[in-house]
Amino acid sequence: MTALAPTVTAPGDARPRRWGRRRVVGVVALVILLLIAVILSVTFGARDVTAADVWAGLNGSTDSASSAAVAKRIPRTVLAILVGAALAVAGTVLQGATRNPLADPQILGINGGAGLAIVTGIAFFGLSSPSMYIWTGMLGAAGAAVLVYAIGSLGRGGATPLRLALAGAVTAVAFSSLTSAILLPRTEVLNVFRFWQIGGVGGATFPTILQVLPFLGVGLLVCLASASALNTLALGDELAAGLGARVRTARLIATGGAVVLCGAATAVAGPIGFVGLVVPHMLRLLVGVDHRWLLPVSALGGAVLLTLADVVGRVVARPEEIEVGIVTALIGAPFFIALVRRQRMRAL
């Protein structure tokens, strides 16, 4: 999807009004879908529940197994919404900042870097506090982002979209192998984090959510504040600089917000992939390429996708569960292959 320069519309042109209506309808539809996803997430799972059980669980009752199941699903649903929104916004920002349609926290190795840092901290430094997981995850995500960009910048031509995608894929594989090498000889660590490696929200608790919420909030605010800068970067570095934009500063700030979101989300839910790839591309068709609309709408879309993916993982293999990271991979891998095969998807 190539970036297009802004076009001047003639007086009375209906295109802005048409886009405006489409955006409003799209936002309303996503809000309705999110409400439906929340209801499904609270209602469906390994145990069937009634409306009375749902009401009791919402009131905090755990007197019966069904109401206790509902009470456990509530923080799980909240975490799925937050993580889905964070990953979708991070993917949108990374695609805009790098002008790379293949950019995604998982594909670029950022989630893998956060995961490797957390596992290393647990295995060798005895990390046990969720807040330390978050800080460690953000440091790992930042280090991975720097490493991928450095590798992708080697040689002539600098950091092209294809080089960044290849460098990210190689780095992600390397981080995954290193993580496995650390975990396999350490049974006690492996037992705790073998499901976390896949990515899931099943262990959500409100104390954990409250600890990660400030980091997600800061990252989201930074990304939303970068919307206008991302619109300018989409015109190309030279034209953006000609318009007075500080290209490197804008790219650094936007990427920093995405790294905070990736690190925090990975710390609490594991390295969930493809949400940041699928959602931005789908929603560009709905609201266009203006990041002032695309970023908040991507947050809604990511929340819907991850919440529904979690519901699917709970239902299709009852009474067992399929971790949400596997479900998003099944959705995102074919999308990624189709995206790579499109010849014109070389830069945003």
Folded structure, characterized:
It is a multi-pass membrane protein. This protein is globular. Helix 3 (65-98) packs across helix 12 and helix 13 (291-315) packs across helix 14 (324-341). The model is unreliable at 1-13 (pLDDT under 50). The protein has 348 residues and is mainly alpha-helical. It has one domain: ABC transporter involved in vitamin B12 uptake, BtuC (Orthogonal Bundle). The chain is built from 14 helices and no strands.
Q: What helical percentage do the residues reach?
A: over 70%
CATH architecture verdict: Orthogonal Bundle
Over the alpha carbons, how many angstroms does the gyration radius reach? 20 Å
Return the CATH topology: ABC transporter involved in vitamin B12 uptake, BtuC
Tell me the major beta sheet.
none
Shape descriptor:
globular
Strand content: under 5%
Number of helices: 14
Q: Write the CATH homologous superfamily.
A: ABC transporter involved in vitamin B12 uptake, BtuC
Which structural class fits the helix and strand makeup?
mainly alpha
Name the helix and strand elements from N-terminus to C-terminus, one letter apiece: HHHHHHHHHHHHHH
